[in-house]
Each structure stands twice: as structure tokens, then as C-alpha cells.
Amino acid sequence: MTNHWIDIRNSDIILIMGSNAAENHPISFKWVTEAMKRGGKLISVDPRFTRSSSKADFYAPLRSGTDIAFLGGMIKYILDNDKYFKEYTAEYTNASFLVSDSYSFHDGLFSGYDPATHKYDKSKWAFQKDANGVPKKDKTLQNPRCVFQLLKGHYSRYDLDKVSSVTGTSKEDLLKVYEMYSATGEKGKAGTIMYAMGWTQHTVGVQNIRCMAMIQLLLGNIGVAGGGVNALRGESNVQGSTDHCILFHILPGYLKTPKASQAALAAYNKKYTPVTHDPLSANWWGNYPKYSVSLLKSFFGKKATPANDFGYSWLPKLDDGKDYSWLTLFDSMYRGEFTGFFAWGQNPACSGANANKTRQALTKLDWMVNVNIFENETGSFWKGPGMDPKKIKTEVFFLPCAVSVEKEGSITNSGRWMQWRYQAAKPPGEARSDGDMLIDLFRKVRWLYNRDVKKGKKAVFPEPVLNLKWDYATNGMYDPHKVAKEVNGYFQKDVTIKGKNFKKGDLVPSFAFLQADGSTSSANWLYCNSYTGKGNMAARRKREKSGIGLNLEWSWCWPVNRRIIYNRASVDLHGKPWDTEHPVISWDPNAKGGKGGWTGDVPDGGWPPMLKPDGTLNPKTKYPFIMKPEGHGRIFGPGRADGPFPEHYEPLECPVEKNAFSDQLINPTAPTYSTDEDVYRTCDPRYPIVGTTYRVSEHWQTGVMTRWQPWLLETQPQLFVEMSNELAKLKGIKNGQKVIVESARGKVKAVAIVTHRFRPFNVEGNVIHQVGLPWHFGWVHPKDGGDSANLLTPSTGDPNTRIPETKAFMVNVRTI
């Protein structure tokens, strides 16, 4: 999230699309309600009339998988009707940048596409540069090669008639949403988006979000109070776990995982340290070597020295060109390419797309460790439906673990707030915290390596194990405070930095003090400032009594306690807030003894405004989008796998034979797999209905925590499938009747809920029906509760992130 939960109350227009906040994030909806009390309006766009829709000022339905068509139409409306924030767009975004002549777009494909590899050559999407290597600009936005004009041309095809025909949304509803939301492009107004897996879980998931980010940039809604692009994370600490590298392609703090070809630290740092030739660009990722070396010092402590590249060679490396994502991991498991697996705090037998393939993949293992709080479908896969335990070799170990309230430590919520939690109760029986299990597990692994080394045996790659810094226990037990301090980072020797003296062992006050010479450590540069000499910042609990809800002394927020990122875009070129009623920051020329300074939130850099009081350029200033090498928000995004502008493609499984916008039916870069369990069907008359998955308030994820609670199970006892009255009549299905929902990959039994919440879509002159199922159930418990909805979903996903496409696929529904 660029902003935070409380800030939603400052919004004039809230768009809930790709999420259902009232039902799935009910506490967040408190701030939606507060905004509405203050005069804000709520728009809900969803295939189903949800609880969020029931509270909205306006609701519009759309077919799953057509969000880019819907949003592309909004971009066209904004441009055609001059609704964009002109000064913001020209000064703070790359709308003025001139794009190379090698860039083009034709019939659904961008320039540089290789049909043999299904990949793009992104160098074709470069900017034109001047003699100094700085992107050329036309702030009048009239040059035909500037981003703004290319944007207008790209979305000129997204007219109301065509968008309505593709999405199934009426032209009247489209126009109403476009009018309401584009009104936030006025100075002093703000609109925000609340999205979740309804946007991410598509073969165009990243581009769904980029499309909305582009709208927010055009309207001047980034950096301001009540604005932003706000992801509603699915668990309380999803943001924290992502920050700390739960994904294969990143290290803590969003540093890149090294590749095998990057044999030396210098080559690695050079690859991922962007260069700018524009003196007004902060280019904050230019500090990459400081963060990577500090991370290595945290990992390996005294063993990390300049002589050994700070232990860089001990880091695991990705094979060049190889993908280690979720879908590919289980594809490799299915093919027998590895033999052991830790399923830690997860239930992939139910949570993963194409769950039948996942369950069969588990049979190929020699061993699996299942760390969880209750028995689940993953740990018990060998005795599940269609399994013969006598033919399965996998040995399963179950380690019972503590739940969140039985552990002390931090969680980082969707708004990037790191909040400290204390242990409310001891874990029962043999259950242990994750930290205690990891402490003992690594001790044992290191003991085995030491034993072999002492015996003269040749251990396999012992250096990372034997040299890893591992002193995070107190009295033999995991100590979360020691880990939190390690994450923040220490000075490794006596130093003077920025005129301040520090002793070896002092906690680093912020990432601005991290160094690339080995004198500092930090296990995550983004969290440097979270546990300092002043104490545990995440444990602070002082509430703000007035203002816009920043609450700067409640917990701690990355980076450096900044509550709204890119907040220097919330002011004009002189440092005055666009929205004087809800100022995020403001330049006070009389602060600091007349030198001037920012008031309000922690600014995105302390540099002065772009212009001096006399209107001339301030040579000490920096552009507001400090994480981008060019310093500008990217309307044109040349780094994505599937194009610099979002383009509508149909889901891999879809109910139409042709894409109305081009001859390219599906995302040309979307991944697919080729085992006998990977079956895809488009326009197959056996599967004529669009299917989607979602959550209910009463259950949590795959239900491992909630299906064992009788009071929750009473409220939502079994798998159901929602469908329209029209579809039920067509199929001869009655409300409450048990039916079979089936796809090309599997089938489930579900209770039919016949409802007005779904209604048929008119798509390109045809009636298209859609159904929805919650994904909280599994065969282990309750015994008649049904199985996972992911038995229906396909093994495909977004080409940038590989998140599975579980929100749009094709099914059939029939009576039993």
C-alpha cells in the first residue's frame, strides 16, 4: 500500500474493485464508513453483488478477467474529457518522456515479441536520451512520440461500446463510474483504490494493478492523503513476510536473488544498481551496494570480509533463466525433480491452483515436513480421495506449531505498519513457535556439518552453514528482540558518518547511515530505523488526536516511519499542498532557522521544493518519485514482461473465441505447463460457464484455522456454489440442492445457492453465465464439507509474478 488503513477516511471517492473489503477486510471497511460519513462516495465493481456492493453508492458488475478493458475505458474517458491533473501529469510522471522509434504496438503485440520464446525484448521500449543520457521530454505533451500521446493512441480503441461488449457492463454503468472517479483529478480531491486477489490472480494480474496506478498518476492521486494504490493483504503479516523475502526472486528489502552467472559481488551489484545521468533524480536504488553488503554482514557477521566478497559466494544462486515460482515448483515436484519438501504454515493441497496436480506431486517425494496447527489436506494427502497409501512412498512428519497469539514478535500490516505483539498464551502440548523450531533445526544441521568436517568427510558446500551468524536465542529459546535488532542493523566498528560518531555495536539509526564497506549490518534495509537506540519503535502506542490520521508515534512504518510514500508529489513545485485541507507534508521556509524544512509526514527525502520562491529551479531539489531512476511516476512501464501499457487479453480459459481488441486472444507471455495434469479449455461447450473463487468472513484461507471451530463451521458448514436465478432455471437447479461443479481438471460437490447476487452478462451479443465458489474447504474436516475449489482452477498465471489465475476459468454445473 502506498498509503495506510486510516488514510482511507480522507478519500472523496473509494473504488473497491478486485476485492470485497466489507466481507474480507471488515476492519478496513471501518475507514471506508468513516470516509462516507465525511461525504466520500463508494463505488463497487465486482462480478457479484457483494457485501461491499450493498454499502456502495454505486455498483457496477463486470465479467471476471475483463478489468483492463474496464479501466482502459476509464483512461480513454479521462483523456478525452480533459479530466487529468495537468500540472501533476506533466511534472511528476513520465507522460512527457519521448519514447524510442523502436517502440510500436500492432494487433495485440508490442514491438520486440519473440513467438518462439513467448518473451519480449524490452530494449525496444526505451526512452529517447539527450547528449547527457537524460530522457528527452516535452512538457506540453504534444509530441507524437511522448508517452502521453502514445497513451491516447493506445486506449483510443477502448470506447464505451467495445468495453461494454467485452465486460458485460452496461454503457450507462461504465459512464457513471468513469464520471464519479475521474472527478478526483481536481486539485484538492482524492480517490483511492482498494484491491486484492480479484486483481492479482489473473494472467494479467500485474497489468490490472498497473492500469489503476496509471489512472492514479493521471489524476494526481499518488502521494496525497486519501489517494494511493492500496493492496488489501490476505493475512495480517503478508506484507511483512513479503518484505522479508518469502518469494524466490528477492532477498530481504526487495534486493534481487543472485543468479549463477553473477559469480562476484561486484557483478551482482552492477547488475541491480540503476544509473541516472539526471542531477535532479535521487535514484535511491543507487544505494543498492550499501544494502547488499549490509545484508551479507548480517548473514555472516565477522566471517564476511572484503577479502571474501563479504561471503557473497555463500549465497544460493538461481540458475539463469530458471523459474522457481509456486506453479513451477509443484510442476518440478510432479516430475520428480526433487525429493524433500517443507510445507511450513501452508496447505498447498487446497490452496494451490490445479490442486489435483499438487496432490499427485506430493506422492513423488521421499519425505515431507508439515508444520501447522491442525491436521490438513497436505499432511494427510496420502489417505485422501483417490489415493492408495500402499503405493505412496512419501514419509510425512507433522510438527505442531504455535498460532500467532502464542508468539511474541512483529507483524507488518497492509499499510506497512510494523506493530509489536506480545505473547497472550503459551502454546499447548508439544506445539512450538516457528522461531524455536528454526533455532533447533539449524543447530542440528550445523552439528551434522561440523561432525562430518571433523571426521574428514567431504561435506557438500559447508561454508554457508558453518559461517552463518546464528545468535538469536536467549537461554536456549528464540528471542524475537534479538532478531528485530538484527533486522534493523548494527555498526560493525567505530565510525563517523554524516558528522555523527557511532560505536561498534550501536544500532544503526536509519538506512541513510548504511555503508558498502562492511562497517554496517542490516538484515533488511527497509526496516533500518525500526529498533534503534531509542528502543523498539514497533511497540509505540501514542495515538494522534488531530490531523489527517498519520499517527506517527503509533508503531513504526517502513520506510523510516513514512506513512504515505511518494508524499513529495502531494505538493506543487513550490512545496504547497495540492490539498490544503489534508496536507501530507508542507514546506515551511522559516523552519530550521530560516533554512526551510518539511512539516507533517516524514518526507520522501529532505530536499527542498522544485522551485525557489522566485520561480527558478532549485539546484538542490530532487524529483518526487525517488525509487525510479528517472524520478517520475511511470505511466509508460518498460520493465514489465508483457508490455509497457496494459492491454486487454482474455483469461487463458475464456468463453469467447476472439479478443474484441485484437487478434491476440490471451496474454502472449502467460506461462503454461505440459504434464498430463495440465489441461486447458477455451470455448469448449462442455465448460460454458465462467468460474471464480472468493472468501467468506467466517473462514480463513483454506480453513485450517477455522474449519475446526464448531461455531464458525455452524455459520458456513460446507462448500457452496453461487449462481444466478437464470442459470439455475436453465440447469434445473433449486436453491439448497447439491450439484457438481466440474472443469477440465477436476470436480467438486457443492450446495447450490441461487441468488440475485450473480446475474448473466451480455458479452458480444451472447449470454454468459458466471458462478463463484469459496476456497476455504477440504476433505479432511468436516467430513461432509466438500473439497477445495482449486481442484477446478488451471496451472497458469501472471508472467511477471507467476501468481495463479484462479479468478477466471471455465466450468460446468450439473445436478447429481
Give a topology summary.
Elements: E1 13-17, H1 21-24, H2 26-37, E2 41-45, H3 51-55, E3 58-60, H4 67-80, H5 86-92, E4 105-106, E5 109-110, E6 113-114, E7 119-120, H6 147-155, H7 160-167, H8 171-182, E8 191-195, H9 197-200, H10 205-218, E9 229-231, H11 238-243, E10 250-251, E11 255-256, H12 265-272, H13 288-300, H14 326-334, E12 340-344, H15 348-351, H16 355-362, E13 367-372, E14 395-400, E15 409-412, E16 417-421, H17 434-454, H18 463-467, E17 473-474, E18 477-478, H19 480-488, E19 495-497, E20 500-502, E21 531-532, E22 535-536, E23 556-557, E24 585-588, H20 591-594, E25 597-600, E26 689-694, H21 710-715, E27 720-724, H22 725-731, E28 738-742, E29 747-755, E30 761-763, E31 766-768, E32 770-774, E33 809-815
Parallel strand pairs: 1-2, 1-8, 2-3, 8-9, 12-13, 13-14, 26-32, 27-29
Antiparallel strand pairs: 4-5, 6-7, 10-11, 15-16, 16-23, 17-18, 19-20, 21-22, 24-25, 26-33, 28-29, 28-33, 30-31
